[in-house]
Write a structure and sequence with these properties.
Layout (H helix, E strand, L loop, with lengths): L10 H13 L4 H18 L7 H5 L11 H13 L3 H8 L5
Helix pairs in contact: 4-5
Length: 97
């Protein structure tokens, strides 16, 4: 069932779209409906993690495998919160989460 829709678009875009539609022997309504169908189909099949901030930032920073940043961070937290060395060792070994 077709329903009428009123849109407000840039005048130049409308003119260019009308020229394109005429050149391809289709209506402007047909062009817009097909475009909307395409983006809806892409949206329904896209990976939810695609485009996520994690994906976009993944791999930006290259860490030196010899750096012990986890140990350094554990040492920082130990000093900051004055945690005992035994507890600090358990944290760095992953025994406490």
């Amino acid at each position: 069932m077709n329903t009428k829709l009123t849109l407000s678009l840039n005048k130049d875009i409308i003119q260019q779209a009308k020229i394109y539609a005429k050149a391809h022997n289709v209506s402007l309504s047909f062009l817009i409906e097909n475009y909307l169908q395409k983006i809806i189909a892409e949206y329904q099949t896209e990976d939810p993690t695609e485009g996520s901030i994690e994906n976009e930032l993944s791999g930006i920073i290259r860490l030196n495998p010899d750096d012990h940043f986890k140990d350094d961070y554990t040492d920082h937290l130990t000093k900051k919160y004055q945690i005992s060395q035994t507890l600090s060792d358990q944290l760095s070994l992953g025994q406490i989460v």
